[in-house]
Amino acid sequence: MPVRWNPEDAVVWKFIVRRISLALVIVFLGSFIIYGVMRAMPTSFVEAMARQRAAASATTGGPTYQEWLEQLNKAYHLDTNIFNGFISWLGGVLQGDFGVSWKYGIPVTQKFNEVIWHSVILNIITIVLEVIICIPLGIQAARRQYSGFDYSITVFAMLCISLPTFFLATLLKYAFAVKLGWFDLYGLVGRYHEQLSESAKVLDIMHHMVLPVLTLAMLHIGGLTRYTRTNMLEVLNADYIRTARAKGLSERTVINRHAFRNTLIPLVSYMSYLIPSLFSGSMITETLYQIPGIGYISYDAMVAGDLPFTMFYSMFGLILTQLSLMLADIMYAVVDPRVRVN
Asked: 277, 123 in Cβ contact below 8 A?
């Protein structure tokens, strides 16, 4: 059976190509801005390294501090202007070479592979927990609009939105670690982790993940709950919902089969924005709990002036954000023809 060409397919593909092209331009310009900012940082790991090597070679009559500084700047393309240095860095990136971390002494991608899974597991658990909690709460709050339950959920959501990460983490650690003693203050594993069996090691890591996951989840529960409630209220007031109720359908059928399905599309798009925000927010959370994920490791690299690793982490966040936004836009374009209009 011959496949008919649908003119709308061409419109969709043009939109996708245009959106991908825009994302590439934003990544290029964003990476140049990030590189310029990194070059302007007052902390210089190269200068500290030059001082250490000059001090070590002073007794043997080796190179001086200035000689070491010139040699290291040349090795890391810091002896040229920002534009030429960026082009040199970009040439290596296109070949998959992000350089060697100045702080950790190994390739940036190798260090990334060692720590990224801690952050991925932390964020996956957080997203699942948010979906399980926020969507039912938002739906029930919309169904009981202006009730005591609705007001309670609204107050709880606003508190979660308003609390800073460090303040919330401090409260949780004080309550559950200091006062109750249920959890450790810091770390991913306990003191006797290596002496445990394999299954006990997994349980030990899960036990140490409770407070970080709770911190990250509470920071985003408020926004997702409010978003679910708002979209559900809009759908419940639509004409087709009134028609479904007029036909005598049960309230459960109206909510689950008609209202929630139409609320799901904007929710999926909204949750795509959560992915980069969770990874960026996990830097503070991982640092506060000293979880050796990409956020905590990147924070240490930034403090030390590690330009290669800081650039890699910044690019990781930039690309992750653009991918999430692009997927959200494409999903909207596929389901809503109005978005495809120029």
From this structure: no
Query: Residue 26 above 70 pLDDT?
Result: yes
Tokens, residue 318: 């930039």
Per-residue pLDDT reduced to its tens digit, 79-129: 778 888 888 888 888 888 888 887 888 888 888 888 888 888 888 888 888
Beta carbons of 336 and 269 less than 8 angstroms apart? no
What is the pLDDT, as a whole number, of residue 1?
A: 44
User: Between these two residues, 2 and 196, which has the higher pLDDT value?
Assistant: 196
Full DSSP string of 138-171 = HHHHHHTTTSHHHHHHHHHHHHHHHS-HHHHHHH
Range of the domain at 75: 1-103+305-342
The answer to whether the CB of 218 falls within 8 A of the CB of 160 is yes
Structure tokens at 287: 């640092």
258 Rama sector, left if φ>0, alpha if ψ -120 to 50, beta otherwise: alpha
Residues 61 and 86 in one domain: yes
Within this chain, do residues 194 and 63 fall inside the same structural domain, yes or no? Answer: no
Q: How many domains does the chain have?
A: 2
172 located within any domain: yes
**Alpha-carbon distances, residue 61 vs 58, 71, 72, 138 (angstroms):** 5, 17, 18, 71
Q: What pLDDT score was predicted for residue 43?
A: 53
Same domain, 281 and 337: no
Structure confidence by residue, pLDDT tens digits, 197-213: 878 888 888 888 888 98
The answer to whether residue 342 scores a pLDDT higher than 60 is: no
Indicate if 87 and 147 belong to the same structural domain.
Answer: no
| Residue among 126, 61, 93, 69 nearest 295 (CA) | 126
Phi, psi of 250 (to 5 degrees): -65, 155
